[in-house]
Request: fold
Amino acid sequence: MGEELATWEMIVVGVLAVGLLIFVLPGLKRLNEEARKAEKDWPGFLLPIGAVVLLIIVLILFVV
Reply:
């Protein structure tokens, strides 16, 4: 599809990836700690997913 990256380009991509991880990981750690303390709301998660699945099934039945 394209040509291979030069050595300096691979180094730049690696440095950017490491920098992104260093920048994002503290926020993800804090988010994970807050998620453990949060109240679980499974019906609020499963109800919209179930509605979408039901809508897709109905649409498929209309086509067939």
